[in-house]
Design brief:
The protein is of the alpha/beta class and 263 residues long. Helices cover 42% and strands 15% of the residues. The protein binds 1,3-dihydroxyacetonephosphate (13P). Residues 9, 95, 180, 185-186, 224-227, 245-249 line the site of 1,3-dihydroxyacetonephosphate (13P).
């Protein structure tokens, strides 16, 4: 059925040399596996070196973000067209750290909301990525306040509807969606496996409503938020959890290798 996928989101960690050393080290620990897609998402600057290091090792490259236009006067931004030129296969969009749900509240500068992702820019980014043949890893998830208010499902459905509006079902077969509860990211607090499975099943039902049953069967849904070697096996054994989007634990070769082996 669906091939499992484990992606490491390195965030703003590791130089290009450190990233290359890390992939070399864990590639040795996990022989090339055809039953799990392994993706690493280094910072933009590290992509060429890491990509060249993992060539022929079955490890795919993802980016952590993208701008929603192909070119133009957008200082500091990187386009899907530029990522495609670097053989980037996946790209994270809508991560809670780029959606600006924190940044907006913490800083009053009016530029922050402009550069932070909104549901609308997430939608535009997905359109550009698909156009350039890059698979989006669309992140959705609720904050602790939203969970406590009992609005988790509503928030996630709203994020999915906004992100995928205007897309034809035929564009969405390869899509990857990551359920990342904001309160579980970098906190060591993992969502209970049964609840993560419930949400991932719910995400699949929303995809079915937005596209069709075939797409819902094909879309891979990952769990992200404090995934570690010791909780990965239980999470990945759930029928609707097709792998993980791993932050902190992907920076350790042995730990990431163990997570991959759990898939
Ligand atoms: P942690 O695994 O460090 O909680 O991060 C999860 C994440 O944000 C992956 O995108």
């Amino acid at each position: 059925m669906r091939t499992k996928l484990v992606a490491g989101n390195w965030k703003m960690n590791l130089t290009a040399a450190q990233g290359a050393a890390l992939v070399e080290s864990f590639a040795k620990q996990v022989a090339v596996r055809y039953d799990v897609d392994v993706v690493v998402c280094p910072s933009f600057l590290s992509i060429p070196k890491v990509r060249d290091t993992v060539r022929h090792q079955g490890i795919l490259i993802g980016a952590q973000d993208v701008f929603w236009k192909d070119e133009g006067a957008f200082t500091g931004q990187v386009s899907a067209k530029q990522l495609a030129e670097q053989s980037v296969a996946f790209c994270i969009v809508g991560h809670s750290e780029t959606r600006g749900r924190f940044g907006k509240l913490e800083t009053p500068e009016s530029t922050v909301p402009f550069f932070a992702e909104t549901d609308e820019t997430v939608n535009l980014k997905i359109e550009r990525l698909l156009f350039h043949g890059i698979t989006p890893i669309l992140c959705v998830g609720e904050t602790l306040a939203e969970r406590e208010a009992g609005t988790t499902d509503q928030i996630i459905e709203g994020q999915l509807r906004a992100a995928l509006a205007g897309r034809d079902a035929s564009e969405l077969y390869g899509l990857v969606i990551a359920y990342e509860p904001v309160w579980a990211i970098g906190t060591g607090q993992t969502c209970a496996a049964d609840e993560a499975e419930r949400i991932c099943r719910f995400i699949r039902s929303v995809v079915e409503a937005l596209a069709d049953n075939e797409v819902a069967i094909h879309v891979r849904i990952l769990y992200g938020g404090s995934v570690k070697a010791d909780n990965a096996k239980e999470l990945f054994s759930k029928p609707n959890i097709d792998g993980g989007l791993v932050g902190g634990a992907s920076l350790d070769a042995a730990g990431f290798a163990a997570i991959i082996m759990s898939a």
